[in-house]
Design brief:
- This protein has one domain: Arp2/3 complex 21 kDa subunit ARPC3 (Orthogonal Bundle), CATH 1.10.1760.
- The protein has helices at 10-34, 40-54, 71-78, 80-97, 106-131, 136-165, 172-204, 240-262, 274-282, 309-342, 345-353; strands at 58-61, 64-66, 220-223, 226-229.
- It starts with 9 loop residues before the first helix and ends with a helix.
- The strands form two sheets. It has a two-stranded antiparallel sheet. A two-stranded antiparallel ribbon has the order 3-4.
- α1 (10-34) crosses α5 (106-131), α2 packs across α4 (80-97) and α5 (106-131) runs antiparallel to α6.
- It is mainly alpha-helical.
Length: 354
């Protein structure tokens, strides 16, 4: 659903850019509360994983494909504010290096693919957890539904943006019907990928899943014929094996991302994605402009001057994963360090004196 340059006029793109910048600023502050010593190192990996899986277009209808948006996955794994930053980092890397998503439309893409998907999915996710049984399986179920809803929500958001500032004269009803219809189907793929990924991480390290915090079931004791909650046990100290396990999760995730982007992506569907198909069918793309980074050595997810398609695409994918994990990790390391710096010596001494 990457919006190219020329679909949305300059004033609307500028307003979307301001909205996106404001949301990123708010998310940077919110991420300080979400990131801790467990999740901060993984946030950059989540961004890289989303980048890799977005290369895997899957067929959803005749001549149409879809790909992961990633807002729901990021929000549930590392928190909604951090999730906005994860998807924003991915969109920035794709726009600058791979000419995917217009540079003047970057604010539109962040608003649509990072903010809307994350906010909507996390709201649905938290709402479902309030009514579902307090089990880990409920987190996976809620992840599926939240991801499913987030994709057509993004389609609705694009339709509204197009209605306000579209550069072609196409009936908004036709755009809405086509966009929502195809993205409901894409949402099913998004839901499957999100639920499988969240379920896999919960099975190995549930403490690393932001959305699963507080889901532990309390033990019950029978007292005088009635079941009552058992007293909460003291938290166990973090031991060295846990740290090694943390590294294993990080390495496993990075290897999986590299394999997906470097090898599996070659077998992805070559059909246009939902937005591209609707734009071509309805004439939204009549004023599309050439991407400013069209001459990039990695434009189109291939390495310039390498004629072998498999090698070119695979190498571009590996480079993309590497650049994204480095850029994302740098951002989240800085956010985490800022949180640590916010705890001043005066605050520490006051807490100690009490």
């Amino acid at each position: 659903m990457h919006v190219p340059d020329g679909f949305i006029n300059a004033p609307t793109s500028a307003v979307a850019g301001v909205v996106a910048a404001g949301a990123v600023a708010v998310s940077l502050r919110g991420a300080r509360r979400e990131l801790d010593e467990r999740t901060a190192p993984l946030a950059g990996l989540v961004a890289a994983f989303i980048f890799a899986v977005q290369m895997l277009n899957f067929p959803v209808a005749a001549g149409t494909s879809g790909h992961l948006l990633g807002g729901a996955l990021a929000a549930i794994l590392v928190g909604p504010c951090t999730g906005v930053l994860c998807v924003s980092v991915v969109l920035l890397m794709q726009g600058i290096l791979f000419a995917d998503g217009g540079l003047t439309a970057l604010g539109v893409n962040i608003t649509d693919m990072a903010i809307v998907t994350t906010v909507v999915s996390y709201a649905v996710f938290r709402g479902l957890l309030k009514v579902l049984p307090r089990r880990r399986r409920s987190v996976t179920v809620a992840s599926f539904v939240a991801a499913l809803v987030s994709v057509p929500a993004a389609a609705v958001a694009f339709t509204l943006i197009y209605w306000i500032g579209g550069t072609t004269d196409v009936a908004i009803g036709k755009v809405a019907t086509a966009m929502i219809g195809v993205h409901v189907l894409i949402g099913i793929g998004e839901a499957v990928i999100t639920a499988l990924t969240v379920g896999a991480v919960i099975a190995v390290r549930p403490d690393l899943v932001h959305g699963a915090r507080g889901m532990e079931q309390r033990l019950k004791l029978r007292v005088n014929g009635e079941l009552v909650d058992a007293p909460a046990a003291a938290p166990a100290p973090v031991a060295a094996p846990a740290a090694r396990s943390h590294r294993k999760v990080w390495i496993t995730g990075l290897v999986a991302s590299l394999v997906l982007a470097g090898f599996v992506s070659f077998y992805a569907s070559a059909s246009p994605d939902g937005l591209e198909k609707v734009a071509a069918d309805k004439g939204i793309d009549q004023k599309e402009k050439e991407h400013a980074a069209a001459g990039s050595p990695l434009a189109g997810y291939g390495v310039k001057d390498i004629t072998d398609a498999r090698l070119s695409g695979g190498l571009a994918g590996v480079i993309g994963v590497g650049v994204t994990v480095v850029a994302g990790s740098a951002v989240f390391w800085a956010v985490r360090r800022r949180r640590t710096d916010d705890v001043s010596p005066a605050d520490t001494s006051s807490a100690t004196s009490v």
